[in-house]
Structure formats: C-alpha cells, structure tokens
Amino acid sequence: MLERASKRKNIAREARMEWTETRVDQLKQLWGDGLTASQIAEKLGGVSRNAVIGKAHRLGLSSRPSPIKRKMIPLAAVSERMCQWPIGDPGDPEFHFCGKPALHGRPYCEDHCTAAYRRKSENSAHAAANR
C-alpha cells in the first residue's frame, strides 16, 4: 500500500509543470503580444489557463482589459431611442453613452431606468427609514 502511494506521488510530481526561466520568458513574451491566457497555456503545453494567470499575477505582469469589446457610442450618434446613460468621465476620450434600446418615453434602457428612477412607494419607505 505504501508503495502504491509513493508511485502516485511520483506521477503527480512528473505531471506538474515547472516554471523554468525559458518558460517564464515565453510567458512574458506571449503575454506582451496580447495572447489570451488560454492561448498561452496551449502554446506552452502542460500548463492550465489558471496557472498562466497565476504566474502572470505573481510576476506582476500588467493586467489587460477584458477581451469583450464594448461598443462605444459617441454623443453625436446617440438617438432618442438609445439609452443616454453616460459611461465614464465626460473629459475622458473613452467617454460614451450606453446606447442600448431606451424604454418608450424614457431616455434610458431598462437597467439604467432602474438605477435612475424610484417608485413613489420606494421613496416613502426610504424617507420613513431615514427619520
């Protein structure tokens, strides 16, 4: 029984990938090239996406924006039927508006209407709670 446990430990040890200097350099290069953690893991081989993310974090590599691209709607392109909820600082070049379909008779989409407006009953309850 002890022999079997020892073999399992050896197999687990062999299955573990070690971060050699060469592999760390490859990780840094691929990370800098903008590859995703999954793509890097595939290129390195024998390492998971999470291992790549963890190592990049421990190395202090810069975080990157989400690969999900948000469509930025400039002010000039916002129409009456689009959500006009501002996103970001108006002085920032990245400033834009939500742009999702607006609710009929409202300037915002459903999510932003929920954030912007309260029902009278909610206001009464809120005022009573703060007395």
Any descriptors?
131 residues; two-stranded antiparallel ribbon; mainly alpha; 6 helices; 2 strands; single chain; elongated
Explained architecture:
The protein has helices at residues 2-15, 21-32, 37-44, 49-59, 110-116, 120-129; strands at 86-87, 96-97. It folds into 2 domains: 2-59; 75-129, no CATH class. The longest helix is centred in the first third of the chain and has 14 residues, at 2-15. Residues 10-14 have low confidence and may be disordered. Helix 3 packs across helix 4. The chain is elongated, with a radius of gyration of 26 Å. Strand 1 (86-87) and strand 2 (96-97) form a beta hairpin. It has 131 residues and is mainly α.
Rough shape?
A: elongated
End-to-end C-alpha gap: 71 Å
Indicate the proportion of strand residues: under 5%
Query: Secondary-structure element order, as H and E?
Result: HHHHEEHH
Q: Quaternary arrangement of the chains shown?
A: single chain
Strand ordering within the main sheet:
1-2
Poorly predicted regions are 10-14
